[in-house]
Amino acid sequence: MTKVIRFTASWCTPCKAYAPIFDNVASSTPGVEFQTVDIDANRPMAESFLVRSVPTTVVVEGGKTVYQKSGLIGESELRQAVARH
Question: Does residue 27 register a pLDDT over 90?
Fold first, then answer.
């Protein structure tokens, strides 16, 4: 199963702008698990994915990271990253 993780933080302004994009793609992409992780609340998970800045988007397929990008990304780029995996 494909899993898409959005690493975020409550103090991050770009994260707030990215949230509705991520939520829109999540709500219209069946069969894919979408998860939001606050790096301050779940530092071990953020460290396990080597997250150095937020927002960071990670796509995991079969337990392996197949896509990872830091920064605000648009809806079409997120949809493409999910569709490729």
Answer: yes
- For residue 1, the model assigns a pLDDT of 86
Phi and psi of 68, rounded to 5°?
-150, 130
Structure confidence at residue 39 (pLDDT): 98
- Beta strands 2-8 and 56-61 are antiparallel
Give the class (CATH, top level) of 2-83.
Answer: alpha beta
- Report how far residue 21's alpha carbon sits from residue 24's, in angstroms, rounded to the nearest whole number: 5
Is 71 in contact with 83 (CB distance < 8 Å)? Answer: no
pTM, two decimal places? 0.94
- C-alpha separations of 52 from 1, 23, 24, 34, 49 in Å: 26, 22, 25, 20, 9
Active site residues: 12, 15
